[in-house]
Structure formats: C-alpha cells, structure tokens
Amino acid sequence: MNIRKFKSWGQLQTVLTVAEVGSYRAAAHVLGVTSSTVARHVDTISEELGHPIFLPAGNRWELTEIGEELVAIAEATQSSLGFMLKDIENSNDFFGALQITTVSFINSDFLAPAMNLWREKFPQAKIMIEANDATTAIERGEADVALRLSRPDTPGVARFKVANCRVGIFASEDGDQNGWVGLPLSLEGLPEMQLARQYFGTCPIIRMDSYRAIANTAQATGLSCVLPTCMARAFPKLRQVHSDEAQTFVDREMWFLFYETRKNDPAIKAAKCWVKDIFPSPNKCLCGKCD
Q: Is the N or C terminus of the chain more exposed, i.e. has fewer CB atoms within 10 Å?
C-alpha cells in the first residue's frame, strides 16, 4: 500500500479516530470538526486506494480488510511521528514545507517583503503562499495556516491574534467623491463594504478583486474607495475621508488560524515564529505606524 499519495496526515488521523470510536459523529466530536469533514476525509482516502475503508455494521462503521491494513500502517506512522516530534519540539530547525493562505494585500505588502526573514530562519524549508480573499477552511487540508481578517468560531480551529487593521474610505484629490470602487459581490458582507454602502448610499461603480487593484483604479479614475490605511501610504493621491456626521472607517483584526490537532507540528511552529517577527504586537496596526 502506497501511503505517500495521501495529501494530509489529518485524513489518516480521521481514519484512526473512526476506527477507534466506531462512528463519524463520535469521531467528529473527538477531532472538533463536522461529521461531513470526517466523511470527506474517509471518502478521499477510499477513492485514492480504490477500495472502501469502512462498511456499515448496524450503528457502527467497521474496517474492511484494506482498512485494517491502512490503520496498522497509520498507527505505526503515528508512533514514529510522535517520537520525532518530541526530538525536535524545542528546536527552531524546520526542513519541511509550509502552505499559508491569506488575503492578497497581506501577502503582497507584508509576507513577501519579509521572505528574507523566513530564508534566514529556515533556509532548507519550502513555503507556498496562496493569496485568496475568500475564506478557506483549514480543516479541509487546503493550507497549514491561514491569516484572516476575522475571528472564526469553527470547532477544532485554534487561533491567536496577530495585529489590527484599519480599513477606511479614501478619495482622490479633486476626484469624484460620490462614486466608489469596492470588492467583488461575493465579499459584499465585509464590514468595510457595508460601511461604504451606508456612507455613499449606493453600490460601487467598479468592483475589483483585491485592495491593491482597488487603489490603482481609484487613483486612475478619481473615484473614491475602501482601503486599508497601511496600503494607502503607497498611494499619495488618495486621502482618507473624515466626517463628523458619519463613520468612515472600521477596525478589523488579523488572526493566525491552524488546526488544533496540529499545535505541535513543526510547520505550525515555524509559521508562528516567522509571523511574530513580521507583526511583533497584536495590539498595533499591521504596519506598526497607523494610529
């Protein structure tokens, strides 16, 4: 059996838990995820093996012959992994791969410029950062870590606050302060989009897929926009709108998210170390300069 093809140790851990407790619901409770996530992990591995891992037996799920072989391999792997983690728990060395997902402007404006710090700390490690402005579920194995501008309450997902982020309404000098540029319709529920709709009383004239695209569009067209104050520093033609009659900014928070069962994973520890070097205070702005 070739275990190397599996994309996530979390999938094998799910199989081990179902084998131990006998049901998807009970396994979901133990792992702190949903029953659908448990089923998805089991189905994914079953499809990759080409054989079912479990078969229903009354109110329980019982291992097939292939499932028993898989569990034996997974248990041996888990035991070896446990010894390995204990050996490197107090070490800063990381030689594996890390995958992070975050909103695009955090990647372009903060993570990419700090890649030298990553290379200095972990020169042998691989890293992949996906700039994705939509929420990505950590428990689906789509990334090791997510940096998000919202605090989730998803069961099984651990979190700590990284920094603050103020998003305000900006206007071009001598531009059109009535029309504005906003994010895609799929992100209409974000606090800054609701703020701008209330301020302008209309939907955005132009929608762009990232804050940097919004800033470039606003500067080119003279339209107003919503923008993180950190990013606005790079666009001198844009000035922040202030009003005594209406709210013109919202304060958001950036959170470091990872799967709780991976708290001792070297990849998570390496990511924490790097992120805390980039954003040293959870009580300050992302850039450390904004009020």
A: C
**What DSSP string describes 130-179?**
EE-SS---GGGTS-SEEEESS----TTEEEEEEEEEEEEEEEETTSEEEE
For residue 32, what are the contacts with CB-CB under 8 A and spacing of at least 6? 155, 156, 157, 260, 261
- Residue-level pLDDT at 91: 47
pLDDT tens for 132-187 read 755 555 666 678 899 999 887 777 788 899 999 999 999 987 766 779 999 999 89
Domain extent at residue 230: 165-251
Confirm whether 223 is domain-assigned. yes
23 and 48 in a common domain: yes
For residues 30 and 143, membership in a common domain is answered with no
Residue 276 contacts residue 188 (beta carbons within 8 Å): no
The number of folded domains in the chain is 3
Fill in the DSSP letter of residue 188.
Answer: T
pLDDT digits (tens, 9 = 90+) for 235-269: 988 999 998 888 999 999 999 998 877 888 889 99
